[in-house]
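Request: Give me one sample?
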Amino acid sequence: MKLKERGIILIPIDFTEQSLIAIKQSYNLAKYTHSRIVLLYCYEKRGMERFEEMKELAKQTEKESGLPTDFMTVKGNVYEETNNVAKEIGATLIMVGLESHIEFKDIFKPSAFSMVRKAPCPVITIRGKENRDGCENILLPLDLSPESREKVDVAIQFAKYYNASIRLLALFSPDDEGYENQLLAYSHQVKQFIKSKGIPCSNKSIGTSDIPKTVVEYANKIEADLIIIMNKPDLSLKEFFSGTDVQKIVDISNIPVMIINPMKRESLAHFSSGI
C-alpha cells in the first residue's frame, strides 16, 4: 500500500507545544503529497470552542506552509472525535503530538491507545520536541507476518519524497533459530527489492525479548527520523490489558512513529508482533 496523494492531513490541536510541533512537521509531507491540512480542536463544554484562536491558527498555518488549511471545532473527547472526523472528511493521514504517556491501566477510557488502534487511516505520532525539517533515515522493523510486508511500499514512497535511506531491522526471539533463519532470508530479499528502486538500504538483525525497547534504542543509534510500523487492531486478552508492542513503541519513542493499518484478511492464524 501507499499513502494516498491529494488527500487530507488531519491534525488534532489542544494548543500544547507538542500539538503545535505536529503542525509544522506536516508541512513537507503535505507538500509532497499535494494534501490540504485540517486542524481539529475538540472541546468539552459550550463556550470553550476557541473558534477565533483556531481561525487565526489556520490562517497562520496556511501562510507558513503555503498550503490550503481548514479548521474544525467539535464537541467531545479528542481521541474519539479525531477518528470520527477522519472518517467523515476522508482523511488520508492523522498527525498527532503526544504530550503524556499512554496509561494502559485506563484502557477502557478513550485514549491515544484506542485512537491509534482504531484509526481509519495511517497515523504519525510525534512525542519529541525537535522539529524535524527533513527525513534522512527511515527505520523499518520486520517480522514474518503478511502485515509487515505492507509497509515496505510506504517506506519506499517516503524515501523517494525525502531522498532518504531505509534501514531494515529484523527482530527475532534469541531462542528461535528456525524463525531467525527465515527472517534473515526475508530481510535480504526486502533489502534487494528496495535497492532495486534506487534507494539506499541496509539491514540489521537483533535477537531480543523486548521489541519496543530494542526498536527505539536502535532508532536513536542510527539517528532515524521516522519509524514505520504496522497497527494491530485485533488484540489478545493480555495485549488488551498490557498493550501491544506497537503501542509501547509509540509510548516510549522520542522519534516520530508512523502506524499503518493492515489490509483485512480472512485468517489471522499467523504470528505477528504488529511491527
About this structure: Residues 102-109, 236-242, 265-272 have pLDDT under 50 and may be disordered. The two ends are 15 Å apart (CA to CA).
